[in-house]
Design brief:
Length: about 400
């Protein structure tokens, strides 16, 4: 009876995680479009805009490892509910920003609030799903980001022209608080003895410092940092780039930005299914090749002769990046024991968030330094894609997985 309930309830859990992460992604993605109005209203320079876009990631990065540790120690449910409540409150506060300094502080605190969700959700997936289903479960949750990548540009650009960016932040925060109540009712740990299980096994699990001695964890950290440097660079600056460099109006930006996101939805779901079928080792080699191809198509994006080809190239980049993102973040769920997967994934995801801190600011400074030209920014993104490829090429799975099993025992 319990087994049957667990078998069915895991789908409720992953749907809840999907919906919660959809709200989180909308709340932070909307800033990439709201910043067009915010910069005008608060009279921000390009460099200041980059700092605002990066301030969220500073707080978000700081909470990755603590968030994963808290989920491992106290269970993912409590941490996720707290994270959702906190970021919903600061989403509302985002609509109240009155200056450059206040906006940086609010977005930093927003990042702190949201930072615990992802590593805790990874813990939840590892708790509820068998090993051979975890890439698919993770890809389903991550698809929320690509779906929001379709919805947010359209809703964001249209709503900014009607009700304004402040009101959208208020509405999004209120929706998040409603979901806190739903989570309190329906989000469950694997069973009533989960906390006891974590406590009794914690003495036997491999400490994070031992896990970090194996190169594969650092390779995944670097690869995730690099691929997300590309991801956040494109997501945070593409609306501004399309307006400034390609002379598109706000409505056109919304629809053009949605095209790659549609490709990303299909790629994310397909990637999870493929990765659960691929043998260990071959998956990382394919991802490395895809990272090289990402660099190639970023170059083609930079010099696309028209907006149609630009959208095609960006869609291809999104497909390749989706495969890499699912592989990197689901690898620990398959390699590590359930008791430490939250902490380990929090560490690896910290790399992605450092990229979120660094990349938007760098692009802002580069564009200012080169008189409004985005060419150097694209070159920087190409170098990051090649860094991801190099890190994945260096992984030696059999040797390192054997080491992980040894330290866990």
């Amino acid at each position: 009876m319990v087994s049957k309930l667990s078998q069915n309830w895991k789908y409720v859990i992953v749907i809840l995680l999907f919906l919660g992460w959809s709200i989180g992604n909308f709340d932070r993605f909307f800033m990439n479009y709201a910043i067009l109005g915010i910069s005008k209203d608060l009279q921000l320079s390009t460099s200041q805009t980059g700092i605002v876009l990066s301030s969220f990631f500073a707080g978000y990065a700081l909470m990755q490892i603590p968030g994963g540790w808290l989920a491992d120690r106290f269970g993912f449910r409590k941490v996720i509910i707290t994270a959702l409540l906190a970021w919903s409150i600061f989403t509302i506060f985002s609509g109240m920003a009155w200056s450059f300094a206040s906006l940086i502080l609010i977005r930093f605190l927003f990042g702190l609030g949201e930072g615990s969700f992802f590593p805790s959700a990874s813990k939840g997936i590892a708790s509820w799903f068998p090993q051979n289903e975890r890439s698919r479960a993770m890809s389903f949750m991550l698809t929320s980001g690509t779906i929001m990548g379709v919805i947010t540009p359209i809703i964001g650009t249209q709503s900014m022209q009607t009700i304004g960016w402040r009101t959208i932040f208020y509405i999004a925060g209120a929706v998040g608080i409603i979901f806190v109540l739903l989570y309190m009712i329906f989000l469950k740990e694997q069973n009533s003895s989960t906390a006891e299980k974590v406590e009794t096994t914690s003495k036997n699990k491999a400490p994070l410092r031992d896990v970090l001695k194996t190169p594969i964890i650092w390779n995944l950290f670097i690869a995730y940092f690099a691929i997300y440097a590309v991801q956040w660079g494109l997501m945070t600056w593409m609306p501004t780039y399309l307006v400034d460099a390609r002379q598109l109006d706000l409505t056109s930006v919304g629809y053009i930005s949605a095209i790659p996101a549609v490709a990303g939805i299909i790629a994310m779901l397909t990637s999870g299914y493929i990765l659960d079928k691929l043998p260990e080792g071959k998956d990382k080699l394919i991802a490395a090749v895809f990272a090289v191809l990402t660099a190639v198509f970023l170059y083609l994006m930079a010099f696309a002769p028209n907006i149609a080809m630009f959208a095609v190239y960006q869609s291809i980049v999104t497909v390749f990046m989706s495969f890499n993102i699912v592989l990197i973040i689901s690898a620990p769920l398959k390699m590590l024991s359930e008791e430490i997967v939250g902490t380990a994934n929090g560490f690896i995801n910290t790399g992605a968030q450092f990229a979120g801190v660094l990349t938007p600011m760098l692009i802002g400074f580069l564009v200012d330094a080169f008189d409004g030209s985005y060419t150097v920014a694209f070159i920087m993104l190409i170098m990051f894609a090649l860094l991801c490829a190099g890190s994945l090429f260096l992984i030696r799975p059999k040797k390192e997985v054997a080491y992980l099993k040894k330290v866990e025992s």
